[in-house]
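Sequence design from tokenized structure. All designs in this work follow the same two-part layout: the structure record, then the generated sequence. An example of the structure record is given first.
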């Protein structure tokens, strides 16, 4: 889809939703962008955000989630916030990092010691700093979902060390952190939209990609890529954001409601995530995917020096990095 087609689609979607859902004069139907299939953990949690919002505001605000990237790919959707084309969304910290550099830091390779460490960082004061950094892009981050840990999946052979990635064309999301990380590991990073990866794998345009198990499974990429090598190079938090224009128009009471239901939806997403990971792993095993545990991740970690040198390039970002590392 080109830009004009996408804008046309957004306008059409907006018109339909305005007619279908405006059931009282004051009711405001919020449009939510989502990349994933409807039964994905984040998709269900976004729906829950909309439902809770309708319940707690007694129908003054309702949410309608457009799944499967129907409203455009991620970079395009992020840009839409500046134009008030989308009211809420869940975006990858890695993708947001191209717009607001602190988000890049929270998406650096091997930055978190564990999922608990990531939650402690984004749920605390640092999460507020990240949200502030998004203000210029007309977004407020209300809560954080987990994006799991991303690892490589390949068509031809497993990956045991960075040397195995040498010369391979690996699809990455179109954002600097993903490109830099995968290139530092020796592969040819190939940015492509999420929805284009299946065909690219099938036609041999790429040799592999990288993602968490639920995305690898829900996209059915495993039908083509039969090796999943768990180096877990990126653990990327995902922000549930609302438009700042909308946020600034809310009363203090409504802001409280929005924040509370966003946090409840994130709680739900994190629980669903653990269940979906298990289910995805079972589906992958059933489909004959060879999962490669990679006991020694040190060579992957050691290769990340240049990524840190290149991207953590201001005092503000260096302080943020140290602060993230200091969180217990
Ligand atoms: C998924 C993330 C999404 C990314 C996508 C991708 O939830 O934000 O954009 O991977 O690889 O896991 O494009």
């Amino acid at each position: 889809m080109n830009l004009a087609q996408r804008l046309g689609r957004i306008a059409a979607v907006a018109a339909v939703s305005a007619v279908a859902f405006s059931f009282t004069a004051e009711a405001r139907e919020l449009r939510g962008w989502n990349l994933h299939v409807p039964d994905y953990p984040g998709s269900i949690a976004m729906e829950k955000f909309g439902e809770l919002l309708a319940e707690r505001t007694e129908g003054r605000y309702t949410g309608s989630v457009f799944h499967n990237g129907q409203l455009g790919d991620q970079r395009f959707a992020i840009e839409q916030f500046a134009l008030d084309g989308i009211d809420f969304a869940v975006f990858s910290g890695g993708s947001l990092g191209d717009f607001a550099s602190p988000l890049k830091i929270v998406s650096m390779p091997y930055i978190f010691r564990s999922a608990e460490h990531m939650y402690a960082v984004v749920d605390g004061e640092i999460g507020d700093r990240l949200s502030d950094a998004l203000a210029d892009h007309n977004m407020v981050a209300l809560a954080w979902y987990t994006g799991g840990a991303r690892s490589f999946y390949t068509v031809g052979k497993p990956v045991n060390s960075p040397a195995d990635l040498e010369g391979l064309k690996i699809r990455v999301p179109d954002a600097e952190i993903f490109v830099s990380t995968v290139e530092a590991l020796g592969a040819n990073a190939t940015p492509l939209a999420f929805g284009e990866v299946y065909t690219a794998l099938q036609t041999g345009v790429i040799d592999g990609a990288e993602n968490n198990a639920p995305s690898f499974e829900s996209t059915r990429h495993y039908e083509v890529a039969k090796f999943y090598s768990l180096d877990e190079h990126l653990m990327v938090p995902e922000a549930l954001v609302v438009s700042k224009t909308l946020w600034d128009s809310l009363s203090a009471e409504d802001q409280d409601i929005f924040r509370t239901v966003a946090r409840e939806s994130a709680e739900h997403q994190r629980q669903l995530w653990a269940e979906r990971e298990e289910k995805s792993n079972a589906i992958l095993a059933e489909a004959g995917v060879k999962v490669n545990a990679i006991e020694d991740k040190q060579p992957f970690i050691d290769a990340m020096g240049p990524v840190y040198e290149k991207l953590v390039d201001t005092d503000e970002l260096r302080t943020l990095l140290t602060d993230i590392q200091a969180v217990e």
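Residues 49 and 265 are 5 Å apart (CA to CA). We note this feature because it recurs in several other targets discussed in the main text.
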